[in-house]
Amino acid sequence: MKKTILLALLTISASLYLLGCGKKAKENPIEEVTLENTKDTLPIEQNTDVIVDDDVPPEEGMLRSRLTNEWVPADIGSLRPLAVMIPNDKSALPQYNVSKADILYECLVEGELTRLMAIYGDWTGLERVGNIRSCRDYYVYWAFEWDAIYVHAGGPFYIDEVIGRSDTNNINALVAPEGVFFRSKDRSAPQNLYFNGKDIAKEANRLGYSMTPRENYSDDNHFQFASASKPNTLEEYGSNAVTASKIDLADAYPITQTWFEYNPDDGIYYRFQKPSNGAHMDAATDTQLAFKNVLIQFTYHEVRDENGYLAFQCSDTSRDGWYFTNGKGIHINWKKTSDYGATRYYDDNGKEITLNTGKTMICIVEDGDTFSYSN
Predict the structure, then answer these.
(1) What percent of the chain has pLDDT over 90?
(2) Residue 75 in 3-state DSSP?
(3) How large is the average pLDDT for residues 86-92?
(4) CA-to-CA dists, residue 155 to 55, 109, 116, 375, angstroms
(5) Longest C-alpha distance within the chain, in Å?
(6) The whole model's pTM is what?
(7) Contact call for residues 249 and 365 (beta carbons, < 8 A)
(8) Do the Cβ atoms of 247 and 260 come closer than 8 Å?
(9) Nearest residue to 142 via CA among 161, 167, 117
(10) What is the pLDDT of residues 16-27, one digit of tens each?
(11) Do the Cβ atoms of 171 and 36 come closer than 8 Å?
(12) Contact indicator for 285, 99 with CB cutoff of 8 Å
């Protein structure tokens, strides 16, 4: 696989938001608990992406989720999102409640591994989320555009600047008070660190973080969504819309070798990866991770040091990519102009694309890497 390796970072200007993990903060005691039969005590998540034309909410007072466009209770629709750093190497599997995320990011870290960042709209009632691992600073900038409270377990000195900003609302497991996070006894450290949503909510309140989107957050209409009565089938693009029953990112993610398979029966892309030996499953819900929308973003990157820590340009930039939904895909271009500004996606005619109601997977791919799709 062809890699773009840049040997020095001297060319990075101070204005680029280029970002990567190394030194750890002093670790506070973290409660150890034994969790047995967790998945048997939680409801099984079902895919509910068959959309009824619902311009009127099914129940009075419900709001549209700005993450998925689904109708949600008002207290959830007005809740500030949570962004969580989740490892994705084989020893980290299986993860818990990652399938509950509305948006999932995947990007390379050092050693050609990938790490996930899960964006949750409804999180206060979740149990055993994680496991949780360290921050890479480029993920913080992606979390900014959702005005999310950012949850992580330490990180390298590369994160100090962005984590130290007064507008960065983060909860660090390595310095949080005892009881906010816990370590389970059914697996070994460091892959056994978790939290419950109610404890994170208490900690966010203790730290004085707003539980609703902040006033200076302006991109309430982050994604553009198609209506339920007129879903985006990509038919308007004619022969420029490719058939994509499988999306293969093995060249871009050589360790996880992530791929997606489309199920025409429910119109959903299901996630697979090598560390899972196939279907990427959630141990809490016993369901496979699945998405209505898959976005691929080619992104400028550089290698920071001899340890392989990476930097990605997150703002003041535009690049190209692909959008997949309903078994088809089109080439797109994306642009992000500020930290809190939304990443906007445009077709080749310059028209902003509309996503379909449901969950979205965002795959950040290094410029110069490739992926493939097939019928």
Answers:
(1) 79
(2) helix
(3) 95
(4) 44, 12, 15, 41
(5) 58
(6) 0.86
(7) yes
(8) yes
(9) 117
(10) 444 433 344 444
(11) no
(12) yes
